[in-house]
Fold this protein.
Amino acid sequence: MGDIWRSNQREVIAVIVLAILLTLYFSTHPSGPTTYVMTIWANQCLILGLAAIAQFFAVIVRGIDLSVGAVMALTNCIASYLIIGTGLEVAGGILVVLAVGITCGLINGMLVVFGRIQPIVATLATGSLFLGIALLLRPTPGGSIDYDISDVMTLDIFGIPTTLIFALGIITFFWLPLRKTGLGTGLYAVGSSEQAAYQSGISVEKVRLASFALGGFFAALAGLFFSFVTTTGDAGIGPNFTLNSIAAVVLGGVLLRGGIGTLTGALAGAFILKTISSLMFFSGLPPLAQPLLEGLILAGAIAIGGADVLRVKNRLEVFGK
Amino acid sequence: MKKLLLGLSIATIATSSAFAETYHPECFVPAPGTSIIEKSAKEGPYKIAFVNGFAGNDWRIAAIQASKAWAARPENAANIEKFTVVSVGNDSSAQIAAIDNFIAAGYDAITFIAVNPTAFEPVIRRAERAGTVLVPFDNVLDSDKIVQINESQFALGKLKAQTVMDELGGTAKKILMVNGLPGNATDRDRRLGMMSVLEKVDGLDIVEVVGNWDTGTSQKVVADALATHGQFDAVVSQHGSAGTINALQAANHPIVPMGVDGENGVRMLMADLKIPGVSAAQAPAMSAVALEAAVSLLQGHSLPQTVYLPIPQVKSKNLQAGVNYFPDLPKSFNTGTGFPSCFKPFSPQELLGQSIDNT
């Protein structure tokens, strides 16, 4: 029991904070937790959640991805051309959008692995590049997304928001199995100590590449869900999401120095951030005080996560974990 | 046969008169070729929200203050159960979520300045289903299903150019045009409005510079234009006109007719220097007209789908301190405090008494 607590401490704290905020939100909302209100909330949260997962895959291998927002903008703009028409065309469009995301991630990964460029610099450069293409595709917002597929993805199934089911599906059918594979272990090994991972026979290069490709894939999914919610293409959506995705992973207990944290935590962090934003609708908080409040919660959550460093007798224990 | 013809002609009269009879037509002026929207009346008082996007400039803050000043007037307060303002930032998905939240909370009407002109089709359908009235203004949508409130940007540009040409008696050799932010539909339409007048003037040399709607940028580019082109017969400026006037003064340029924006500081300069011409702008008080439109729709009145408000304007000979400009208020104060044909313009005290916070 103690071990489970110690290895999942950060996620548990994040989930508890989320539960408190969510209760507060539903109790201040004039219509309470109806399916409609839950769906609005879950749609908002999942978009940032997917962006946070994209960021998680960069951070876990001791990197950072400043192109998450740009990949979202690019895939959103491509989606606004392709996800329309017959069922087959829509399905094809979704595949193309996801393939573009994976390609973007691989480009990032190759610059980092073979180009030996720091991730922060490499993704800053590719981010401008992806944004440039998005702007060429959609100089002004426009285009449209098939309404049927948008409705299916952004409404509810038997009263439960589809996006919430999707989020749970990612954890159950993607993350938990992945964690048990060699790649799952490799992510943590490379993030904790590249040297040790290399000497243990892990192919550091392959793990890095796979990690960035997964990041691109989830950034594309985020762009796709943004498209389903807004049903239009807009190249200007990026900057918000890049910064918030970093805030979300930190809030979810993922350490920026790599090797510690989980996808579930990143997702919970994103849900927390968006729930805080939603809280202001009916709380009467001034909009200019909102960034301050977000910052305070962010700082508080990181402080709680880092508090164990102060308590241990031997600091090496922390680094050895 | 005769009866049929008679019936037909009556029917034609009925439809054509229905066209003329939208509610309060001197305020809610129909745009050319627009349709009419009417909803069944709802019992008041109403719950209304204003969902703003970006909040970080003077115009948006003035718009928020005007909406609150409108809701505070006793004749409107009687119709309102609750009035809420939120600013969600430049994120269209967040603005959609905010509108959805107010629909879910049972609000009767929501006004908003759209972050993105194309992203609201699904939320319009959800509002329709819930019986919530949506009224976008300023940045309007590519939609013909809901009532939208704006000024005609083409008419605004045309007004400025026409006024300076009238001042010059219809002939001029060289004119300076200070444009806004390139690549923007508002800039494009205002420029086209100006060109529609200026292109018809024989032998007119039109010099265009990009002022980005910004006082500092305008001052710099106008100074450059004066250095290379010398003297102009007239100047038309979209916004940031204070910079344009300052640059002209710094270069000892003689006073010429000008078409300028509606900032308090610009009108102060216009009055002090006795510059002939017109001051007109996109007035932030249209946030209040949008609320007025929302309440009218809820009361069952019919309105044009696209409303082009009569542009608030002052010719320089009609400038009057304390009435249409205010020497004791900041230069950045926006004089677009109302649309006289809609309701009594707000006094500066009414506006400045309103906080910019969410309520």
Notes: The longest strand of chain A covers residues 156-157. The radius of gyration of chain A is 20 Å. Chain A has 15 helices and two strands.
